Amino acid sequence: MHKSDVARADAQLIRACESGDMDGVASSLKLGASPDARKTVSIRITRRRAPAGVLRRTFSIKGSFINSEEGVRVVSTTGESALALAIRDGRVDIVHALLNAGAQTNRPIEWQIARTMPLEDVDPQTWATSAWNSSLHYENALSFACQKGVKFFNPPGAEVELLNPSDLAEVCQQFVLRPRVDVIELLLTHGAKVSAVDLDVARSSGDNAISQLLENHLIKSPSELLRELDTLSKENEQLRNRLVALEQKEEFGGSPTWGFMPFGRTLSPSAFGAKEVKAMMVAVSGHTPAQLDEIQVSGGHRLWVCTSFLDGWGNGSWDSSPWHASQTPIKARPRLAY
Fold this sequence. Notes:
11 helices, 12 strands
């Protein structure tokens, strides 16, 4: 699909979202519009050449003005996304369509509002950096959906061009935002992350339904660390059962196949307070080897620990499978945690 075709489809999607045209949204997405499409906003400042004999400001920046009759300076930026517009207007059907098409829930939602300025105040030396009056930024779609109250948005249109803006009404429009439970539920279903800031905003707004929804979602969706701990717990249980089977096999005459038996030979004579662990553990600090029988460990590495000692040393397996005969005995002194 040609870039120009995509650009046209994106522009059509933005216009459909702003007008609440669900059929137009579906048509645009079918034509290849990005569900993450955004508006573009341009500020165009013109300065006509003064009549002969009239003192005028001289503009010397390269490329600032492009012809002798009229000086033109343009700066552009991206504006609100299609998803932001649908959330703003409370159009749960359009939000649903965009999310199903792949709109990113955890991308920042942000846009800028143009500065109004009389032509005589335009300074070409600083104009490009001072053209925008304010920036609105939200960490993700959920953070934006939790907002309440009056917010400023750019004028309607997929490609907004502001010519010599001098009045607030020319550069923005006001909307009153109200969080919607159905929109927030959709965002959560599609993977939107909840932050402490979102909870604070919901609680301060006095909307108990929204704050309760976010709290319940956090309870039902543990963090990655909790998931990791749950996985480790299950692995520990499996490994313990495997070790019991191996020990029973050895007791009844079988040949041991796991590599922990010779580990004591690698430990320093000063090691004391031996404690059998036989569990998967995670290093919460690192260890730099000083001897050949030690290993490099970084925080976050997972180790199968057979024995730990009061002086901080431990021995076990670098791999998570302690019964692999090919395992090399190791010892290290990182801080460990289950």
